[in-house]
Amino acid sequence: MTTTTAVAPAEQLDALSRRCLAEAHGFVTARAKEHFSGRSEGALAETAVPEFVAGGKCLRPLFAYVGWRCGQPDSGAAIRAAAALELLHCFAMAQDDVMDGSELRRGRTALHLRFARWHEEQGWAGSARRFGESAAILFGDLFLVWSEQLLRESGLTAEQLARGWPHYDAMRAELAVGQLGDLVNDARALPSWDTLLDVLRRKSGNYTVRRPLEFGAALAGCGPELLAGLGEFGGLVGEAFQLRDDLLGVFGDPAVTGKPAGQDLRDRKASSVVVLAAAMADRRRQTEFAELVELETVDDEAVARWRELIVATGARDRLGELIRERADKALAAIDPAVVPRHAADLLTALAARCTERDR
Amino acid sequence: MTTTTAVAPAEQLDALSRRCLAEAHGFVTARAKEHFSGRSEGALAETAVPEFVAGGKCLRPLFAYVGWRCGQPDSGAAIRAAAALELLHCFAMAQDDVMDGSELRRGRTALHLRFARWHEEQGWAGSARRFGESAAILFGDLFLVWSEQLLRESGLTAEQLARGWPHYDAMRAELAVGQLGDLVNDARALPSWDTLLDVLRRKSGNYTVRRPLEFGAALAGCGPELLAGLGEFGGLVGEAFQLRDDLLGVFGDPAVTGKPAGQDLRDRKASSVVVLAAAMADRRRQTEFAELVELETVDDEAVARWRELIVATGARDRLGELIRERADKALAAIDPAVVPRHAADLLTALAARCTERDR
After folding, report:
1. Model ipTM value
2. How far is A124 from chain B (nearest CA, A)?
C-alpha cells in the first residue's frame, strides 16, 4: 500500500481502488449480516449485496481520494469517506437497472432479476418480476443509507465532515434529479445536441468526476483557488467520461463491458452518440435514421444497421475528437503551482482511465 | 404555540404537529425549488412534492418531540429534528405505494399515478405507468436524503446529534428491511399468528412509536432508566397502532381513511386481521376462507363477504381487545417517578390518538 513516487500512478490507483473497495465491501457485509441474518430472504441478501459491491471500478472514490491528497497526507479515514461514494453509486446502479429494465450489470445478472428468480424458486404467489424490482429498489435505499453512514462514521473530524456535507448533499440530490431528467429525455422526442450537452455536464460531469473531486478536496480543507482548478478539470473529464460511456454503450465489446452489444440502442437511449448522429446526418441518412427509430424491437441486425449509420455520419469519429479535446483542456487546467505533484500525477492517470477506457 | 399545562394535551399535540409539518413542508419546498426550477418536469415537481408532505399526521415527529421533552425544554431545533421523521415517512409512503400498486394516498391520487398522468398528457413515447413509478421512486429517494439533511441541519449540537444517529440509522434500515419482509410475507402462504406478531412488533412497533420516542429521548440526553420505560411503552403502543391500522385496512370508512374500502383485502395483504380470522375460524368458516383466498379479483361484493366472515370468527372483537390490553399496559409503563408530568400527559394523549383513531 505504498504511495511513494517510485510506484507508477496507475498502480497507485489500483492499490487505492482495492483499499476503497475493501472498506465498502466490509461495511455492507457487516450491515447485511446485522439486518438479514435468520430471515427467509437473508441467505440471498447476505450473498447478493456484498457481491453487488465487489467488482466496482471505484472511479468516484478515487477522484474523492485524490481530491483529499491535494491537501492532506494518506489517511484511512479519508479512504472510508471516499468509499462512501462507491455505496452511493451502488444505490444508483441498483435502482437505475430497475428503471431501465437492464438485465446485466458488470457481466452478472442484475439485482432485480436475481431476486425475481429467487421468488420463482420459492413457488410463491404474486408477480416474481414485481417482487424482484421492489427488492432491488429497497436494497438501493439501503445502499443510500449505508453510504451516508459510512461517511459519517469514517473517522474524519466533525470539522472536516462539515466542509464535505454540502458537496455530498448536492451529489446525492443531483443523482436522483439527474436520473429523472434522463427518464424525461428518453421519453421525449430526441433532444437537441445543446440540451444534451447541458444534461451531460450537469449529470455525469458533476456526479462522476467533479463533485467527488471537490468533495475530497473540501474534506481536506483545500482553498478556493485549488477548488476552482479542480472544478474546471473535473467538469471537462466528467464530460469526456460520459461521452466515452455513450460510445461504449453503442460500440463496446460485450466481453469487456459486461453488457449486451449496443445496449443503449436496445434501450432507445437518447445518448450523445444518437443525438450527434442525428444532427450530422444528411437527408438520405435522416430517412434511414427515422426508419430505425420506428423499429418495434432493436435486435442484433438493427444494432448492426444503427452502428453502420452512426459511423457513416461521422459522429463516432467526432465524439472521439470531442473526448480528446476535453481531456487535453482538463490536463491544462492542473496548475503545478497549486496542485501538489503527486496529486497531479494521479489526476493525469485518472483522466486517462476515464477517457481512454474500454469498459 | 404555548405549552403551559392550561392547554389540553390533545390541543398541544395539534399545535406541535402543525409546527413539525411547517418545518418539513418549508424544507422540501425550498429543496424542490432549488433542484427543479426551470426543468420540464419542474412545475409538477414543485407542486406535487410539497403537497405530498402536507396533510401528514406527524405521528412519528410527535413521538420524537415528546421523547425530547422527557429531558429538555421546548426547542425549535428539536422540532426540526423531529420533522425529519416526517420526511422519512414520506420516503416510505412514496415507494410503498409503487410496490403495493396503491392508487390513493390520504384521499389524493398517489404520487406515481400523478406522474404517470403527466407523462400521458405530454404525449411522450414509452410506458406512462413505468415513468410514473420511476419518478415516485426517485422522489422517495429525495425524501430519504432530505430527511437526513434536515436532521443534520436542525440546529441541534453535534453532541446531541451523536446520541441520536444510532437510533435514526436503525430506523432507516429497519424501514427498508421491514418493507422487504412485508413483500416476502405477502408472497408467501399465510404466516402463523406468532410470526405475524413478531413482524408487527419489529416493523410498525419500532418504526412508528418506539424508535421515534427513543430517538427524541436520546437526543435530549435521557438516561437508561427513562429510555427503558419509553421503550416498553413505545413497543406496546406501536403494536396497538399497527393492529388498529390493520382493522382500518379492512373495516375503515373510505370517507375518513382516504383509502378504498377494504384496501388490504383488495391488496391480499396478510394482515393481522386476516391471519387472526384464519386462526379463529371453525371448519365451515375455513372452507369459506379458502374460497375467498382463491378469488381472482377482490371486488366490492368480495370485500363484503370477507368482512362478514372476519366478524363471524370473532377476530374483529378479539383485535379490539388486544389493542386495549396493549394500550393499558403501555400507560402503566409510564413511571411518574422518572417521566416528567407534562411529557406523561402528552404520551397518554398520543397513545389514545394512535389506538382509538378512525383514520
Report:
1. 0.90
2. 5
